[in-house]
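Extended Data, panel c. Modelled sequence:
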Amino acid sequence: MNASSDTPPDLQGVGFVLRRPRDGDVDARLRLGRHPEIYRMFGAGRSFPGLFSYGEAAAWVARIAGHPAAWIIDQDGLTGEVRLDNLNHVDRRASFAIGIFDPERLGKGLGTAVTKRVLAYAFDELALHRVSLRVLAFNERAIAAYRKSGFSIEAANVSRL
């Protein structure tokens, strides 16, 4: 993808594909629902919002579809999302975000593999110089995946939730 491209290409990984939204994704996202432990790792507060509605699923798919560098993680079906946010082609930098919504897929290397695939795209295809991210200090699984993918810790902000 270059600065004039409107949508990123699908990215193939080993055992998964990173793709744009398609028919059926709203229902698939609705089925995954909202799991309290996953949302806690995303930084959700102590009050869990409860059920995931059809409207929220539709809005999520629309947000991915309208994003210049976001993909649905598809591992035998919709599993999560990954994005390069704040993509700046002039400064050649972006922020990284990933969410795996299926608790059965956690801890099996998918997050690391997806992260490595998106970073390869960011550095090799987009010619970025820097990709950064934020992660909560207690999200040890994510920190391990990010370190395996080549991220390093530059600073630590510690706060209580």
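The first strand starts at residue 11 and ends at 13. This feature is highlighted in the accompanying rendering.
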